[in-house]
Structures are given as structure tokens and as C-alpha cells.
Give the backbone structure.
Amino acid sequence: MNTSETPSFERHDHERCIHSTVGRVAAACAERGLQLTPVRKRVLELLLDQHKALGAYELLDALRADGLGSQPPAVYRALEFLVGNGFAHKIERLNAFVACCIDETQHSPAFLICRGCNAIAEAESDGLKTAIEDTASACGFVVEQRVVEIEGLCPQCAIAQ
């Protein structure tokens, strides 16, 4: 994992972040024989825009304004493609989506969700993954999916309080 490419709550070169992530996804699609259609690419760009989770209807409004789709299936198909191929994640707590900013197809993200400004940072959580699997295994349970969402305050919101 290249942590210098992983957005956090720290200020960073946002245009570079968007450009490098879209480039990484385009390269992965070409390598895997997948199509990064204009709608899929635009949804990814929208998800990257502020590092905040966006709901399907927020994305649909933006696509409609761009002339790329006016019906819910357009955005849901794009989200299904992005999530299914590891390019985006669903934030269950918010019923919304964020772009994946970690350059690995198989990883264990934890999402740090600021309850003040709704910013989201994706962080690697290998230690937590191991603890969850060990706990589940001790009970004879087989983990198929895990979603780690941690709510709190980002550094800027914590200072403001």
C-alpha cells in the first residue's frame, strides 16, 4: 500500500489525488478487460471530489446536470461496477458511497467518518481484520464480509469544539 496516496483528514493536493486515482482505476480496467464508461468514470470523479460519502440520488443529480443520465438505474449500475471491482465502497451507516483510495484490490479498510463535517478517510485495518477473524474463528464463525466504520471528529472539527 502506498500510504502517501491514501487521503486522510490532512490537506493534500486534491487534484493530484483525483487524477492519480482515476488513472489507477483506468489502468486496472484496461488490465482486467473492464470498461470504464463515461458514466462510471464521472461517478468515480464525483465520489473523489470531496472525500465525503455521496448517496445515489446526489450522484444522479450530478449526472443529470452533466447530461450523463437521468434515471436511477444509470447511477446504480455505475456504483455496482465500482464497488464490485473494488474501486469504491459502500458506507453502510450512511447508505452512501466513497471512492476507494487504497491502491490494492484486496485490503481491509476502516472508514473514519467525521460526524462534524461528514468527511471520510479510508485507512488500512489489517490488525483489526486479524482480531475480527480470530474472534469469529473461536466461535466457529466464518467471516465473509466485514465493514469497519468508526465515527468521531476529524482534526479540524475536534479543534473547533
